[in-house]
Amino acid sequence: MGNALIEVRDLRVTYDHAEVLHGLDITISQGEFVAIAGKSGCGKSTFLLALAGFIQSSGSVKIPSEIGMVFQNYAVFPWLTVRDNIAFGVRHLQRQEREAIVNRYLEMVDLKDHAGKYPAQLSGGQTQRVALARAFAPNPKVIFMDEPFGALDTFTRNNMQEWLGQAWQRESKTILFVTHSIEEALFLSDRILLFGDGHICGDLKVNFARPRDPEMKFDPQFVELRKKVLSILGPESGGPYRQ
Amino acid sequence: MRNSARTAISLVVFLAAWELIGRSGIFPAPLFPPPTKVAAAMFEMAHDSSNWPEAYNWVPGAFRSNLALDIAVSTERAAVGWAVGSLVGVIVGLLTGRIPSLNAYLAPIIQIFRPLPPVAIIPIIIVWWGIGDFSKLFSIGFAVFFPVWINAHLGAQRIPPSFIWGAMSLKADKSDIMRKVIFPGALPFIVAGLRNGIAIAFVMVYVSELAGASAGVGYEINASYLAYRVDRMFAALIVLGALGALADLGVTKGLYAFFPWLKYASQK
Fold it and tell me: Which of A54, A77, A120 lies closest to B168 in CB terms?
């Protein structure tokens, strides 16, 4: 991987006089798929929100201004159709250009037949595909994903993981992906940042070849790396990690 | 059985019971007229144009009647007062719901006025501005403002932060966020406030027309009371209730036609 796209130095976040992120230093390269894993309440989502500038923090953060966001609760707008949700981030473009982009992403997420529907008329997986298409459409340099598949059933989640892996390869974006699932983190990412109580307790490279097959989750190397991650996220990170 | 059939059965049973009790002699007939007498009184009002103002003589004769005039005058007052009160309520509610410093300035003042019965301000309004139409419209708008404000305020406060963050990541500025995220996000609450406001508007139409009105359904009820015509009072009350119900139906249908996603808002 090449140039540093995101540089974070001594990042601290305080809620109600209690520090929840304790001076993080991270560099993320352009085009990297970085998973951020750890227990609930360890500061993973806070880290993303601080990087995006949505909450107050101290320290130095160098990050491109073009970011996309995907949340666990989808956060697609219920009052806009699928088409208009995807178009929201490209609303300033000329109509022809905007339509071309929206149609491209409608096809990419396989929702062309649902373009006129409202999010409430879609399944959870379809709704999350709208959220992903909306984040990709303005062509951001980096996309933050905060447990985007956390609310999906296992089968839909596996399909979405495969879809995202392929989309990332096609679109060459830098992705920061928060997840509880170590398997998901290993399957999708090039690198895993392990969070424990507001600090980074591990930074591991994931060197599996791409494109990745779901069968790789049974590969001995994959299982070994999973064990390693679980051991790092053990009692030292603030308590036993359960998955 | 279809719901429309159930509604029809319910209405027929209600009217039949009322007719029977009205004709039974349990109550004095002039004090409790049966529905047939009330219908006759309504017919009489619909064919009496003695109160018709000369300024409206351009209306074809077949459409001139005291009842039509009362309906037109009351509906106009309710509509204008409701529209102005709602507009101000929605704008102020969205702003106080999202801007804590503005809320700190305005909420205590609004909260002091909110529990007051709106009819209690009518004497003050008459002292200030007399008994003309402006006073009536002001009192209706004043009463409608509060339920619309509190709903818009709560709706704006309950927008999930992820909606705002999502919009910010898509380069939405403050104006975009207010118009394209906060307003539609608060709309289910605002609709509840607007519907509540319709009912209050018709209460205030009636109350405001008790003093200094020369037409209107409230005026008609008061005039019939002074003439001891309970059948006409019933007829006017039915007209007032029907106007309120039709206004609620019309506004709700209009909002759902304009914002079709609202019908899914409570499903997920």
Answer: A54
Backbone angles phi, psi at B18, to 5 degrees: -60, -45
Q: Within this chain, do residues A99 and A164 fall inside the same structural domain, yes or no? A: no
pLDDT at A243: 42
Cα(B18)–Cα(B24) distance, rounded to whole angstroms?
10
Structure-token pair, residue A135: 């984040």
On chain B, the residues whose CB falls within 8 A of the CB of A119 are 268
Most distant pair of Cα atoms in chain A: their distance: 56
* Chain A residues close to B268, C-beta within 8 Å: 78, 119-120
Taking Cα atoms as reference points, which of A48, A57, A116 lies closest to residue A82? A116
| Contact across the interface for B170 and A120, Cβ inside 8 Å | no
Query: Which burial class, exposed, middle or buried, applies to B227 when counting CB atoms under 10 A from its CB (0-12, 13-18, 19+)?
Result: exposed
Provide the domain count of chain A: 2
Instruction: Tell me whether residues A134 and B264 touch, CB distance under 8 A.
Output: no
Q: pLDDT of B81-111, one tens digit each?
A: 999 999 999 999 999 999 999 999 999 999 9
- The answer on A210 and A95 residing in a single domain is no
CB contact under 8 Å between B166 and A69, yes or no, is yes
The one-character DSSP state at A72 is T
Q: Quote the pTM value.
A: 0.86
Range list of β-strands (E), B109-226: none
Distance between alpha carbon B96 and the CA centroid of its chain, in Å? 24
ipTM score here? 0.88
Sign, CA dihedral A90-A91-A93-A98, equals positive
Sequence-ordered list of residues with C-beta below 8 angstroms from that of A230, at least 6 positions apart, any chain: A182, A241, A243
Residues A93 and A50 in one domain: no
Judge whether B175 is closer than 8 Å to chain A, CB to CB.
no
Residues A178 and A230 grouped into a single domain: yes
B160 touches chain A (CB under 8 A): yes
The pLDDT value recorded for residue B80 is: 97
User: Where in the sequence is the domain holding A25, given as residue range(s)?
Assistant: 4-66+140-235
Hey, what CATH class is B33-264 in?
A: mainly alpha
Contact B166 A78 (CB under 8 A): no
Rounded to whole angstroms, what are the CA distances from B186 to B90, B155, B193? Answer: 10, 4, 11
How many of the other CB atoms lie within 10 Å of CB of B91?
A: 14
With CA atoms as reference, report the closest residue to A180 among A234, A243, A233.
A243
A75 contacts B165? CB cut-off 8 A: yes
Instruction: State CA B48 to chain mean position distance.
Output: 27
Task: Assess contact for A38 and A104: CB atoms under 8 A.
Answer: no
DSSP state of A22: E
